[in-house]
Design goal:
- By secondary structure, this protein is mainly alpha-helical.
- It is built from 4 helices and no strands.
- It has one domain.
- α2 packs across α3 and α3 packs antiparallel against α4.
- The longest helix has 26 residues.
- It starts with a helix and ends with a helix.
Length: 108
């Protein structure tokens, strides 16, 4: 894959992920707080919002790792959604975790 092709695909994934995140934010944000869903779940569960986001993030990472392992063994992974969606979600959760760090801690 050429550098140009790589960067083109990377940009397309970023644009797609940004569009998806904006759409989902309408469902999860409350009173203008994009992170409200994580804070609310954390309060109900008695954990930190970063813990909630970490669990959601791990779900997608586990799916990506399983896909990679099975594919490398020549197996066909069974998927409930395309692997590209799992990768996109994992990337989005990294952004959410970064935002939660800034929002809920001193950032150090």
């Amino acid at each position: 894959m050429t550098n140009k092709d790589y960067e083109s695909q990377k940009l397309a994934r970023f644009e797609n992920r940004t569009e998806m995140a904006l759409g989902k934010s309408k469902e999860y944000a409350k009173d203008g707080d994009r992170l409200a869903n994580f804070k609310e779940a954390a309060q109900v569960l008695g954990v930190h919002p970063l813990t909630v986001a970490s669990v959601y993030f791990y779900k997608h990472i586990a799916a990506v790792l399983t896909y990679c392992r099975k594919t490398s063994l020549g197996q066909t992974p069974e998927l409930s959604e395309p692997i590209e969606g799992r990768i996109q979600d994992a990337q989005e959760y990294l952004d959410i975790i970064a935002a939660l760090i800034k929002d809920t801690t001193s950032g150090t």
